[in-house]
Amino acid sequence: MTGLSGSRDERPGGPRDGPVSLSPTLADAVDRLTHLWSEAAQSANLRLSPHQLRALRILEDEPGLNLTALAVGMKIGLPTASRLCDRLEAAGLLERVPHPHKRREVRLLLTGQGHRILDEVAVRRARALAVVFGAMEPAEREALGHGLQGFLAAAQERGAHDRHGSGP
Length: 168
Known about the structure:
It is a single chain. The protein is mainly alpha-helical. It has helices at about 25-40, 50-60, 65-75, 80-90, 110-135, 140-165; strands at about 95-100, 105-110. The protein has two domains: about 45-130, Orthogonal Bundle (Arc Repressor Mutant, subunit A), CATH 1.10.10; about 135-168. The chain is built from six helices and two strands. Mean pLDDT is about 85; it is low at about 1-10.
């Protein structure tokens, strides 16, 4: 593999062992995972865009969010979030319900069909991953599991630092 400097360095402790050396492999894996993820979602009974699926997942995790909170959570504009919710509501996956204590606020809730679609997508994705994992050696699966746990812990820690203004 060619390092950032353009030279091949296979020595232990060299650039190949650094955090940057893993980036191309991870980028390829994420690209393949994204494709697998998208295919599984598109095989569901109702074809949804990644944006629509993400909105449903957020609302599944935090039922009753208002439109502004959903837009902020998705890092999209309010008009875009509104159109997104219009489409999800028209498809029968989302309903807008008046807030019980705030007259001007509307809560966003998944319908039973919305929950079923998310469950179906999750099952399809798990099956697709199981096929790939089944082609791996047990030691590779174990190493991947440990590596992903470490990645998630580091990403979560970084997120906590970023939220508290500590930076990278």
